Amino acid sequence: MRSPKLDLNLFVVLESIYEKRNLTRAAEALFITQPAVSNALARMRKAFDDPLFVSTSSGMVPTPFTENIIGRVREGLQLLEASATEGD
């Protein structure tokens, strides 16, 4: 799925939420505010028509859709980072 309105930075937020399982900790790791993470999650939920994460007493649990895409998201982020640092 490719949406011209989908900011690639949203995938950084998705990966951080996945890793931290908590919006506040994801925000801290990204050096942004918790409302910014919540806003990014809302934008992704709309773009993918999926909740992506479900809030539980033990943290944010990824949906099957998120579990299905997280490997490719991480791979894509690693490729972008490698491309950005290739000239170093």
Short description:
By secondary structure, the protein is mainly alpha-helical.
Task: For the structure shown, list the relevant keywords.
single chain; 4 helices; 88 residues
Structural class: mainly alpha
Strand order of the largest sheet: 1-2
What is the approximate shape?
Answer: globular
Q: Mean pLDDT, rounded to whole units?
A: 93
Distance between the termini: 32 Å
Q: What is the total tally of β strands?
A: 2
Helix content: 55-70%
Percent strand: 5-15%
Radius of gyration, Cα only, in angstroms? Answer: 13 Å
Largest sheet: 2 strands, antiparallel
Instruction: Give unreliable regions as ranges.
Output: none
* DSSP helical segment count: 4
H/E element sequence: HHHEEH
Structure description:
With 88 residues, this protein is mostly helical. 65% of the residues lie in helices and 9% in strands.
Task: Give the helix/strand layout.
Layout: H1 9-20, H2 23-30, H3 34-48, E1 53-56, E2 59-62, H4 64-85
Antiparallel strand pairs: 1-2
Helix pairs in contact: 1-2, 1-4, 2-3
